[in-house]
Design a protein that fits this description.
single chain; 106 residues; mainly beta; 4-stranded antiparallel sheet; 3-stranded antiparallel sheet
Length: 106
């Protein structure tokens, strides 16, 4: 679904842009903690599913990316400076699971 302000003749008001129940259920199965974080961010979700965790700065630059296996799911964020960051959790095929923000403390 596009959020572009440039609406053209192909605009269809019948397209549903809401999050499906399946997508909401998938996001609810995953948790990142602690937040705020000092050294390691833990990703908790269904066993047997590998995911990518990507951390971005406020300008949208990718700072960290780690593929997390089915069982070991810790990301070392100790090299990040204190501040606010954004994350994207996605399946290995690129399907977005969850996005959010995190606070890094010293």
């Amino acid at each position: 679904c596009s959020t572009s302000a440039n609406i053209d003749a192909d605009y269809d008001p019948e397209i549903d842009c809401t999050t499906s129940t399946d997508e909401a259920d998938l996001a609810a199965q995953w948790r990142l903690f602690p937040n705020p974080v000092q050294q390691f961010l833990v990703v908790e979700g269904p066993l047997g599913v590998a995911v990518d965790l990507i951390v971005y700065d406020a300008l949208g630059r990718e700072l960290l990316r780690q593929t997390m296996g089915s069982y070991e799911r810790r990301l070392d964020v100790s090299r990040l400076s204190s501040g606010a960051y954004f994350y994207r959790l996605q399946q290995l095929d690129g399907l977005e699971i969850k996005t959010g923000s995190l606070i890094k403390l010293r």
